[in-house]
Design goal:
Helix content is 0%, strand content 48%. It is an all-beta fold and 123 residues long. Strands 2, 4, 5, 6, 9, 10 and 11 form a seven-stranded mixed β-sheet that branches. A four-stranded antiparallel β-sheet has the order 1-3-8-7, with no helix packed on it. The mean pLDDT is 97.
């Protein structure tokens, strides 16, 4: 069982930056594809970004491409999401997730989920 714990959320102004982190409890982290998803109030959970186990491959939702960067440090069992040029529309609870499949945007393919961290962007 892989436990994921997000941190680093908070409040930012539009145009600002935040970095959220997700620490995994298990050494198998280095073999897992990791993803970030988000859910805004009254909306469905949506895909944000994903990264392969090696970090070689990444994929982003169009809404965040060029503004957000996903990365990982397998030595620290941690995945990051650097968020720049934040917009009020980025306000949501951000979840990290893990899967043994190749990179995927489908939430149903992710087996392990964190509890989420709130990101709020003010205009």
């Amino acid at each position: 069982q892989v436990q994921l714990v997000e941190s680093g959320g908070g409040l930012a102004q539009a145009g600002g930056s935040l970095r959220v982190s997700c620490a995994a409890s298990d050494r198998t982290f280095s073999s897992l594809t990791m993803g970030w998803f988000r859910q805004a109030p009254g909306k469905e959970r949506e895909f944000v970004a994903t990264i392969s186990w090696s970090g070689e491959y990444t994929y982003y939702a169009d809404s965040v491409k060029g503004r957000f960067t996903i990365s990982r440090d397998n030595a620290k069992n941690t995945v990051y999401l650097q968020m720049n040029s934040l917009e009020p529309e980025d306000t949501a609870v951000y979840y990290c997730a893990a899967t043994g499949t190749p990179i995927t945007t489908h939430s149903w393919q992710y087996r392990y989920w964190g509890q989420g961290t709130q990101v709020t962007v003010s205009s």
